Amino acid sequence: MEPITILSIFSAVVAAVWTAWTWREQQNAVRQVQRDQAAALYVNPLILAGHQLQRRLGGLLDGRELVLNKSAHGDQDGSGSAAAVETLWTFAQFFGWMAVNMRHGPYTRDSEVVELIVAISRTFDDRERFGDGTFRFSTAEQESLAQTVLHRIGQTTLRAGESSSALTEFAVITAVDFEQDFRDLQSTRARLYRSRAVRSVVEGIDRAERVEQLEGRERLTAVRQLLRRLLARLEHLEGFSVSLHELREVAPERIAAALANIAPPRILHRMRGRIRLGIPALRTNKDFAGCLEELIRAWPDVADVSINVTAGSVTIKYRTTVPDNEFQAEILASIGTAMHRRDGEALTDAPARRLQGAVSSRPAAMEEGTRPRRQRAR
């Protein structure tokens, strides 16, 4: 074969490869633009609704929402307080964006996102673990509540280069409009609003004056843990975070001031995998409450932390991978050590795996007769 022929063939192959590579890159760019546009329509609202629900769950579980409900909102017509109805709207909004992302979002094939969304939905519907009481919504009820607040408003055409696609747009009604519809006896959704699941939520929130009186706390705690993981995953995929990490930015001198003159904790209740401590300073010292929660969450084996500022208590749930007495002693010792710092050490630094030396310095507030051995058997 002549050299000119070989050169011509080689040039044609290079041109074909270059054309294919260029086309592929253009298609990748088009898909990325379309993915980003879909994320703006579906994922961002889910993240915002998730954080709104997370704050509401935190307020219910630590008692703040219950106190505000009693002081600022009445139940004038007997159908439920404004705060309780707004909480229901928060649930419905999240249900709506959760369903939209399962059908239209860019992460419908991300196994972790799908599994977490399904787990949250099933936790709300779970009868075996949490019974059939407050805050239980069946899958059908979740779908029905979603449709009360989320409406399809049309389609938008997305163009990227020579390619185009159509995405469905949704809009959420305001909490004010939802409350008006909720109280309207002639509403087409009145049957849903008067259903057992919905009424138990509204009445349960209005009936509880303290967090201990709030039914369904265990279900909400489980949902909160799953929701935290879902938001972390979505924010990681999107490359941004809307969370405020104010506690990690507290100045050392502010921490020292927050911890000054605070009485040591005392045990209110203990059982396998769970301990509840009474710390009266939590009622008045917000800096201390925030710093303490951040510190405890950094401990190994801690599964969840719930601070009730109204009752002045903190409940710690932990994985039972170590003996209960040993773990509880280390918790008490480390809290006591942190509460007596005066040098402005950073309270949010994660401790060593087994908090060296903590057991030997455990505070005297520990109950008599339950002190563990001073050294772990090796």
Task: Report a brief summary of the structure.
The protein is α+β, with helices and mostly antiparallel strands and 378 residues long. Helices cover 53% and strands 12% of the residues.
Short descriptors:
4-stranded antiparallel beta sheet, 378 residues, two-stranded antiparallel sheet, alpha+beta, disordered C terminus, Gyrase A, domain 2
Walk me through the structure:
There is one protein chain. The chain is α+β, with helices and mostly antiparallel strands. It has 12 helices and 6 strands. The model is unreliable at 244-255 and 342-378 (pLDDT under 50). 53% of the residues lie in helices and 12% in strands. Strands 3-4-6-5 form a 4-stranded antiparallel beta sheet, covered by helices on one side. It has a two-stranded antiparallel ribbon with strand order 1-2. The protein folds into 2 domains: 28-238, no CATH class; 248-361, Gyrase A, domain 2 (2-Layer Sandwich). It starts with a helix and ends in a 39-residue tail after the last helix.
**How many domains would you count in the coordinates?**
2
Q: Report the helical percentage.
A: 40-55%
Beta percentage is 5-15%
Q: Radius of gyration over alpha carbons?
A: 27 Å
**Largest sheet entry:** 4 strands, antiparallel
Shape: flat
The helix-strand sequence is HHHHHEEHHHHHEEHEEH
C-alpha termini separation: 80 Å
**For the residues shown, what is the average pLDDT?**
77
Structural class: alpha+beta
Query: Which stretches of 5+ consecutive residues score pLDDT under 50?
Result: 244-255, 342-378
The number of helical runs is 12
| E-strand count | 6
